[in-house]
Structure formats: C-alpha cells, structure tokens
Amino acid sequence: MVVGLINANPVIYEKKERRIRQAPETTDENAAEPIDQLEIFDHIRDIKDPEHPYSLEELNVVTEDSIEISDEHSHVRVTFTPTVEHCSMATVIGLCLRVKLMRSLPPRYKVDIRVAPGSHATETAVNKQLNDKERVAAALENPNLLDIVEECLSPTFA
Amino acid sequence: MAMDGGAAELREAHRLTGHTDRVWSLAWNPSPGAGAGPVLASCGGDKAVRIWKRAADGAWRCSDVLEDTHNRTVRSCAWSPDGKLLATASFDSTTAIWEYSGGDFECVATLEGHENEVKSVSWSASGSLLATCSRDKAVWIWEMQPGNEYECVAVLQGHTQDVKMVQWHPNLDVLVSVSYDNSIRVWADDGDDEWHCVQTLTEADNCGHSSTVWALSFNQKGDRMVTCSDDRTLKIWDTSADLSQPKTGDNHESWRHLSTLTGYHGRTVFSAHWSSEDIIASGAGDDVICLFTEDKSSMTEEPSYRLILKKEKAHDMDINCVRWCPQDPNMLASASDDGTVKLWELRGNALD
User: What is the residue range of the signal peptide feature (chain A) (predicted)?
Assistant: First the structure.
C-alpha cells in the first residue's frame, strides 16, 4: 500500500549547537538543581518525526524558546509547531512529547502540551485531546499507537 | 459528630497502598451488612480492583484483589444499593458484575456492547437498572434479569463526544450524563419504557461549563446537583423539578443553574461529591481537595456556597476521585495518580 506523505518536502533546519548546562553557583553540592528550559529541550529535541527521518528539532517543530517552565510551581508547557496546518500527525507528535516528559521528569510535574496558536486547522480540538489525561491513558493502552510512539522515542539519533 | 467548635481541619488518617498505577476511582459500599465496618473499593490503571476493610485493630487492609478479568484500565466501579454486587467499567469496553459469595468475589456477568472504552457505571436507586457510558458517545441502560442476566433496554444517543460519567438520581429513575462535549444531559423514560433526553445543560443556554464535564454528584435529597469541569469550576444546579415524568406542551419544568464556584482550583476538577451532611468535596489536577458548604447567612435570594477548607498538596499528583463514607460522614476517601488512596478525617466545626 502506498501512502502519500502528509508533508512530502519539509524544510530542514540546522540542529542547534549543544550547550553544556552551566553548573549552578552554589557551594552546597546537595542543593536541588532546578530544572530549566534547556534541560527540557534536551529531553525532547531528538524525538523522531512520525513520518520523516528527522528530529523534531530539525523540522523546527520544537525549539528551546517553545518551552515554558516554572520549576517552583512544577509546571512545564511545551508549544509545538506542526510542519503543515493540516498535519494529521499533530496528535501523535503531541503524544510523543507528553510520554517523553512523563518518563523524564519527576512525577510532581504538571505538563501542558499545545500546538502553536494559528499553526493548525483544528487547534482547539488537538489541544483538548492532548490534555485529556484519560484519553491519553487510553491511547497508550492501544498497542499500535504505542508502537508508533516508541518508534519516535527510540534513540536513533546520537 | 466530632464538631468541637474549632476551624475545619482535614487530617490524613490512613494511606492505602497496593495499586501499582494511578487510582482512578473509589466506591464505598452503601450497605456492607449488619455489624460490618465500612468497605471501600478502588480501581485503576493496573487493571485491578482492590477491596479495603478496617481490621479490628483500626488499621485498613486490602481484603481482596479483583484481577485477571479486565485486560485494560478499570476506570470506575459502583456497588449495587444492597451492597451485594460490584460493577466495574473498563477501557477494555466491557463492564463486569462481581458478586460476593462464600468469602470471595466472583465475576458473574460481563456486559458487552460499547464500541470502545467504558468510562463510568451507575446503579439506579432501586438496583434494577444499570447505566454505562463510553468514548463511543453513547449511554446504555441495562435491566437486571433473574440469573445474573442483563438486558440492554436503551441506547441513548445525543452527546457529540466521549461521555465521562453517568449517575442516577438518588430516588428517581432519572439519569444524568456528563461529557467531553461540555454538556450535561438528563434522561428519563416516558412511561412506555422509551428513554429520552429531557434536558441538556450547556454553556450557551444554561450558564453551563465551557470545557469537559468530568463528574457530578447529587445531594442526599436529590434537589441539588454539583458538576465539575476542565474549566476549573464547580457548578451547583437546582434539580428540584421532577423530570421523571416528562411533560409535553407549555410550562416545562426544568433544572437550572444556581451558582458557579470559581477561583478555587488551578487545574481540571476531576471529582466532586456531596456528603449527607451537605458538604461538597472536590478533588483536582492541582493536587488540592476543597470543601464547600451552603452559606446560610447569605442575604442574597439565590443560595450561595462558600469554601470552608482548602487542603493543598493533599496528594503528590492529580486527585481523580473524592468520596464521603456513607456510614461516617466525617470520613473522606481520595484517589490519586500517585497510586495511593487516602482516608481523611474531617474535624472541627465545618458547618458553622
């Protein structure tokens, strides 16, 4: 079966240089180190696009600036930009982002995932679905969908 | 009652551990039997149901684990009014009926028909009807027949999205469903066993919710209802109009919005429950439990409700369910994504 690609010719962006996170200026080695924007970005930048052999960073779906974090309030919001307005993969990409952060962050974190305002034809519906934890839980019990998510999260990129 | 005049306080009395995934739902047995103490059922993402009982030494222990029947998340559970049957609704699209016999819970029936995840199950006051709802947008009504047979007597279509919860009125054969489509629907039969939607409460027409409605609860009398939502509010409704005998023509009686409780929760409110002492408990995605009661000193004509207690960090993660114990109105159970169930003791003068 030949399936047409949703976006046959995506624009590819340069990967950003990997910065080394600055050690906090503290003399107390046991002090808790707050989680910052770059740390969150490092968790999600290498997630693979569901239909292209590129990372979400290379497709400019996520950038460091698209992450808002308040370590104090244990809250993260990731705003991603689908490559095309009618991208039917938007919910899968959002699901990958949610699963990766669920597995990477301490459980106290509340995570909100949304598409960038104006970047998707069914923005409200996509956002509502991605933030309904019951539907996310049900989706992750679907073996086919879970396979797709695992494939996107598999460490293909160094 | 332990109302000693002090400010209201919610004290963590017991922490029940055993579930290996998030706990979605709780149900107190309304009729645990003569001489028996309170019995609580909990269910969750580990596909299991746990039955909790208080031992002679005051500690709470898990007496039974119901597993290997559902092969996906058990989303909710409900006891029959006589306390002899437990119904469990699962993402595996089935509802199981369990009977306690000879010291064991035995699965005596499996209700099939929904196209996908069953989200909620509720028994009618008489115990003869059972309602289930699903992501397939439908609400089903089942009639209990002799010999553990259940016959589907109605498939109710009307919601345009995932139905999150069904709950029967405490003394009438009136069913309420709440949905991802933001609406609340009220269902009754017309006397000829034909079930109809007799009212729909929406944001546009009835000051209803602006996002997913997750749960509802009636007060004991059934003349008030509370609903809670992803819009971070709780809403109180006047449900004194008897919709169980739908009337035609003019002068429709209807349920109406009384009050909106806003600004108390910072994230989705997943659960609300009305106690026999008229205290409303709410649990939310902000890990907070709030308690509200009617403000009797209010000078306004419409009833108003006030916060009597806000318990921050009641759990380490989202709170999915709060339920008052029917045998002890000062005991509240809560269930969380953190995998625990907590039993809280309400102390102090909450109703002042």
Answer: none
- CB burial of residue A120 (10 Å; 0-12, 13-18, 19+): buried
Task: Name the residue in chain A with its Cα closest to that of B90.
Answer: A138
Crossing angle of helices A37-44 and A90-104, in 10° steps, is 120
Mark out the alpha helices in chain B (DSSP H runs): 203-206
- How far are the Cα atoms of A55, A67, A81, A97, B53 from residue A113, in angstroms, in the given order? 18, 10, 11, 8, 40
Q: Which two tokens stand for residue B341?
A: 């169930």
Using only the alpha carbons of chain B, give its radius of gyration: 19
Both tokens assigned to A12: 């590819």
Would you say how long chain A is, in residues? 158
Contact between chains at A128 and B267 (C-beta distance less than 8 A): no
Q: Which residue has the higher pLDDT, B162 or B4?
A: B162
- Name the residue ranges covered by the structural domains of chain A: 37-153
**C-alpha distance from A106 to closest chain B C-alpha (Å):** 11
Asked if B180's CB is within 8 angstroms of A132's CB, the reply is yes
Number of neighbours of residue B54 by Cβ within 10 angstroms: 16
pTM: 0.93
Question: Does the CB of B181 have a partner CB in chain A at under 8 Å?
Answer: no
pLDDT tens digits, one per residue of B66-78: 999 999 999 999 9
Max Cα distance, chain B (Å): 61
Q: Token pair for residue A49?
A: 């696009």
Give mean pLDDT, residues B208-223: 98
CB contact B137 to A (< 8 Å)? no
The token pair at B182 is: 């933001």
Give me the mean pLDDT over the A77-87 stretch.
Answer: 91
pLDDT at A16: 74
**Runs of H (alpha helix) within A79-142:** 90-104, 123-130, 133-140
Residue the block writes with tokens 């490559």: A83
Rounded distance between C-alpha atoms, residue B213 and residue B182, angstroms = 5
Cross-chain CB nearest to B117 (options A107, A110, A138)? A138
Q: How far apart are CA B200 and CA B9, in angstroms?
A: 37
**pLDDT tens for residues B5-42?**
568 999 999 999 999 999 999 999 999 988 889 999 99
Q: Which residues of A touch B70 (CB under 8 A)?
A: none
CB B264 within 8 A of CB B226: no
Find the residue in A nearest to B47 (Cα). A141
Q: Give A38-47 pLDDT, tens digit per residue.
A: 999 999 999 9
Strands B213-218 and B289-294: unpaired
Class of domain A37-153: alpha beta
Burial of B303 (0-12, 13-18, 19+ CB in 10 A): middle
